[in-house]
Amino acid sequence: MSPDPFISAAAPDEPLALYVHWPFCVSKCPYCDFNSHVRAEIDNAAWRAALLSDLAHEATLSGGRPLSSIFFGGGTPSL
Question: Residue 15: pLDDT above 60?
Answer without folding.
Answer: yes
